Amino acid sequence: QTSVGIPSAPRNDREKAVKNTSIEIEWDIPKPDVGPITLYRIRWTNNTRSNLHETKETFYLIKDLIPFTNYTIEVQAETKASPGKWSEHATIQTSVGIPSAPKNVRGKDVKNTSIEIEWDIPKPDVGPITLYRIRWTNNTRSNLHETKETFYLIKDLIPFTNYTIEVQAETEASPGKWSEPATIQTSVGIPSAPERLVKSHVTNHTIEVIWEAPQPNRGPILFYTVQWGSHNDTTNELEYVIDGLNPYTDYYIAVRAETEAGYGRFSDVLRVRTKIGIPSIPRSVSDASKNATYLRLTWLQPQPMNGPLDFYKVQWTAVDDNRLQTVFTNDTTFEFFPLLPYTNYNFQVSASTVEGWGEPSVTFTTRTGIAVPPEATVTFLKVENSTDYLAEWRVVAPYPGPTTYAVYVWKFAGQCEGGGRIHDILRGSKSRKEWNQPTEVQVYGLTAYSRYSVSVQLKTEAGETKSNDSEPIHTPAEAPGPPTNVRANCEEKSTEADVSWSLPANPNSKITHYFVEYGSEYLGYREVSVKVNDVCQVQKITLRGLRPERDYKISVRAIGEGVTKKGEQASPPTSCLLPAGVPPIGNQQWIKIQSPQPSHLNVIWNDIVFSDAMGSLIEYSVIVGMPESMGPPSSGKIADEVPLWTNYSSGLSKFYQATPAGWNPFLKNDDEEEDPLKCRPQDEDAHHVILQCTLGLESNCATNRSYCNAPLKPDTPYMIKLRAFTRGGYSEAGPLTARTSKPSTSGSIGGIVGGFFAVCFCCFLIFGVFLMKKKGGFEHVRKIIESRFVRPTLATSQPETGVELETYQHGRCIKIQNFCEHVRIMLSDSHLKFSEEFETLKHDSPKLPCTAAEMDENRHKNRWMNIFPYDHSRVKLLPLGDEPASDFINANYIIGDSSLREYIASQGPLANTVDDFWRMIWEQSTTMIVMLTQLMERGKVKCEKYWPDEKEPKYYGDIQVKLISESMLSSYIIRVFHLQLGSQQRMVKQMHFTHWPDFGCPERPEDLINFVTAVRDHLPRIRPGPIVVHCSAGVGRTGTFIVVDRLAQNLKHNDDINIFETVMELRQHRINMVQTEDQYIYIHLCVQQLIQEIITPSNQECSEPIYSNVTRETDTGV
């Protein structure tokens, strides 16, 4: 037999019996059999430890294992030869064991009726816990609950109670042990209602109550709340005294307890009534109804009444009476009568119970109603003068209440009135204090020479009464008021005006006659008397010998019997502008016709061929025809239509018109269409304009033209007529016959001879003029020369003895001692010399470039399209960046008496140039603005308002302007402005003259002189910049102001004056300065007034101006 070998690994290791702490395993004997097995070794391990055991059997019981744990088990066989290999390992898990007691039982969330507990899982882990049992007990009962979680919420517990809690775990093997008991107390709970609430003591103002604590005890009571009605209070005791209660009042009382968990329920309500007390104050005392002498007082019961009421007591008195009266009643109303009307009464009401009288109510004051007033009595009337008297009236009766009075002043029918009328109603009121005192009323505004009576009406809300009329009173006579309906019919006749008027609204006396005054403020007035036959009829008079197109002011005054003072004139005086008439023929000897060339005729004539006595000559025409083709001169309202050039050129007519419509060579200027006759002055220094107009200058006239200055035929006779037109008609001079010269055959010799004769002619002319000025020898020759070549001076225009002729030449200085005489003569003969001088001024005025104003970018910045600033003197603004033409403003520098830029003459700002205007003020450092126009005149905007309202600053561009003050004077307004640009500030003053009427001049020279003086007075001593003067266009009124201001300064250090050259100097810097003849005359009148104030009154004092009229040119708003 072979020896024992090493065995192979046992086979088929397997569990035989498995328990929670032991595993019995078995296995098969190793194959093949190599010999007797001496022993088996068993090796088992888990995650924490390993063990080795030996046995001789093919099974083995492994003990002391951990329940519900995986074990790896291997078996090894051993023979004598050696141990064999270990078997394949077998993994076997022990069975579930009995769990240990849960650990750390604790409260997770404890409330007053629940405890949420939690615990730790039993250790070691002996298998899945199938459930936990929770056992909790208090002193009265025990409960058992089950859960599969490691926490549990125990509900329905008693607040503020200790509970013993245990937890037991159970597996499928068996329940484990109970945990250590945990004692947990529930939180404090909301208490139950207090018990046995009862009253212990009651008075009329207090109730004492007691109670027992709530059961069961659910925690410490913090305090008790006692509630009665809408009131409550707290206490820590089991009793409470409620005070401040109303007597005889039911109170409902309840108590509740409060723990830290909150309020408990209130106890059962306890009803307790306080004892009877003194009643409270009656309520709502009022007057239910009342009139002037009766009042019914009502009130409501006291609340609370504090017990059954016995009586009411009413105490009352008049406010102005110290007597206190008392009445008693069981009712809540009481009637009082008789009382005084409109009187304040005080009432107090009190109530009583068995305990006594309560406090009286708050004083109720009411007033009785208003009564109908008694009749007044007029007690006194006194006439104080023709327009005032004093009336007195009174009443004797109780004061009825607020009373107004109306004193009716009745005027009886006067002259020419159909009936009487109420002159005035003087209203007022009478207070209680004044009621029984006499009332004086001063009646004003009465009409003199009239009868009046007075009655008084008293009125309250209740009604009214009226007194009887007083005895009539008579006012004395005085100067009559202004006549009414003063009208002048000036539209039908050129030299007459029909004036009518009616009785003054206030005759003030018996009218015996009227004075009618008519004329001009500048040149004097005439006055005529009109006797009155029937004072109630419309009065009429015809004024004759008037001048057409002259603005007359007509006023009418009434004269009263026994009154030395003239009556008032209607204001304003009636204006009368007579229409132009047919112009009369003047001196036709001044028409000369020459033939310088075979195809030309020169017509030499002057402006006295036709007279302007019937109105301004506005148009002329020259009519040319064949001999015998034209009839005698005609005149009339409407001129016969002259055949057209078309008719003459086609042979249908023998004459034609050589001049265009509207032709007036005496008003020619460079801007008008070229004159087809090329008229030109022949004598620049004469008092009258002599023109030479040439016929035959045009060639190739179109056949469809209405006029043509066509070439004339050589050596041919022609007939020529001159026509002159006013706005009211025309007249003709001529016809004159002239023959054109023959054609020349020796041109060069004729030129030499012609030149020789021309030189001789000029010498002869100069010699003749010299003789004329000398007025000495060769008188006959002088007269011939004067009649041919020098315009004669009308007799009415000759200077009077003692004044040299040179005084009246244009542009000459006048000594101040001769100035008044100079003005008198200039005003004579309807101010003819002024008209001539002003025409010369306009003719000689320069026409300078205005390129900047005519640029397209600047045209909209000009108010008038014919008033542009000259380029050489215009004010240039600082440019605004790259903005084109931003340096332009319609304004020019004007030379002054002390500075080359003393003034700036500007147009009134437009809406789009206001910012530019303030830029100019700032950049030029101007401190004075002179404004000579209203913002709107006759419905037309003359100047944009360029300043803000008072105390409302406004920005103009970057410049802030604020109106600081505004002072209204009789004829001008002074405004002070505050200007600010960035941090720089300045003050600027504006002097605004408000009495310069549209279409005219100020009423009196003193008006402008006073204003000029005021402007100078307001100038600062050191002026940093020019004075800015503007009207609307900035030429007419502006020029007038500057000239008067300059001449006023000049008169302070010079004894002569030259108005013509001063105006001309202004026109060198701005167009049309002093625009109208009226303004030119007005300057002379202002200077005359200034001179009168300088010289000592003597024979040099100016006399009243000779009566005449001033023709007003059409105003352009300047």
Automatic annotation (TrEMBL):
Compartment annotation: Membrane
Entry's EC annotation: 3.1.3.48
SUPFAM superfamilies: (Phosphotyrosine protein) phosphatases II, Fibronectin type III
Source organism (scientific name): Parasteatoda tepidariorum (Common house spider)
Chain ranges of the Tyrosine-protein phosphatase domain: 834-1090
Keyword tags: Glycoprotein, Hydrolase, Membrane, Protein phosphatase, Signal, Transmembrane, Transmembrane helix
Parts of the chain that traverse the membrane: 749-772
Domain Tyrosine specific protein phosphatases positions: 1009-1081
Catalytic activity: O-phospho-L-tyrosyl-[protein] + H2O = L-tyrosyl-[protein] + phosphate
GO cellular component, one term: membrane
Region annotation (Disordered) ranges: 460-485
Keyword Glycoprotein: yes
Protein name: protein-tyrosine-phosphatase
Residue ranges with Basic and acidic residues bias: 461-472
GO MF assignments: protein tyrosine phosphatase activity
PROSITE patterns given in the database record: FN3, TYR_PHOSPHATASE_1, TYR_PHOSPHATASE_2, TYR_PHOSPHATASE_PTP
Family matches, as Pfam families: fn3, Y_phosphatase
Domain Fibronectin type-III, residue spans: 9-97, 101-189, 193-277, 278-371, 373-478, 482-585
Bilayer topology term: Single-pass type I membrane protein
A single BP term in Gene Ontology: neuron development
